[in-house]
Amino acid sequence: MIRSIQRAAVCTGLGLLVQLAAALHWTPFTFIASAVIGLPLILAGGVLFLRAVWKSLKSEAVRQDPS
Amino acid sequence: MVRRRARFASAVLRRNEISATKPLDSDGVAASVHILATALLPVSLVVALAVGVVLVAMSLLGVSLAAHAVGRIVLLVGLVALPLLLSVGNLSYGVSESSSTRFCLSCHEMERFGRSLFVDDKQALAAAHYQNRLVPRESTCYTCHKDYAMFGDVKAKLNGLRHVWAHYVTGVPEQIKLYESYPNSNCLHCHDDSRRFLDKDVHRAISSQLYANSVSCLSCHRIAHDMVKVDAHQFWQAQ
Questions:
Q1: What three-state secondary structure class fits B232?
Q2: Do A27 and B163 touch (CB under 8 A)?
Q3: At the N or C end, where does chain A have fewer CB atoms within 10 A?
Q4: Nearest CA of chain B to the CA of A61: how many Å?
Q5: Residue ranges per domain, chain A?
Q6: pLDDT tens digits, one per residue of B25-40
Q7: Looking at the domain assignment, is residue B54 inside a domain?
Q8: Distance, in angstroms, between A67 CA and closest chain B CA?
Q9: What ipTM describes this predicted complex?
Q10: Domain containing B86: what range?
């Protein structure tokens, strides 16, 4: 789980870096990059995190109630 | 003399680039919001990055936040909610920024069109509108080149994507021209009930054709951007 969360954090971090570059200097290129690369990376980070938490909660539930 | 005027136009263009971040014609509140967004967005993105780094560092150091509910909420806010919220804010700011004169002129092929705002030609539409402040200087290109119909903004942004595609992928055409002929509705959006427009007999005589777009405004007002004077470095300079 920790590894998955770290992967999610790396994705989100990269996405934020792209967004930061765009926010510091808006040009057509940085705008497209922030929309096409930055935002999907952040979304991917969110999905990875939620999946990791979901998996962990599921396995916890199975451990508590094996039947 | 010619070089001095060209330098002047470049300097004004640069000054306008700066003023594009500090709108000249907007009211105080809008200007304050703009300045706040310009400063706050990068700062909040850095804060979000720092939060992410701290969370990763904690997990590397063996502090397992994901083990309990509060930790998961902290992770959810730090890794999902905050970055997502900032991204949406950043993108919406980017969309508004993409309407600025500075943004349009950031592609070098548009530079000559930017200079055409400063030519010494009262008949050239772009120069006359810009120099007389008939359009907001921070969004000059967008004000005249977007349609004012229901999806005018969307259409303008999609056209912008086509420009970017041409700039980076297919290459800029030898002669830059509009995708479709300039619609009268864009002119009439501002001029149709203005006194200067209505006082001219010729406008009243052909008003139905103008509204039907069967006679183009540009058939009389022929010069949109005076590129001849741009190339001859004939720029207007306030005395």
A1: coil
A2: no
A3: C
A4: 13
A5: 2-60
A6: 445 566 666 677 677 7
A7: yes
A8: 23
A9: 0.85
A10: 2-182+224-231
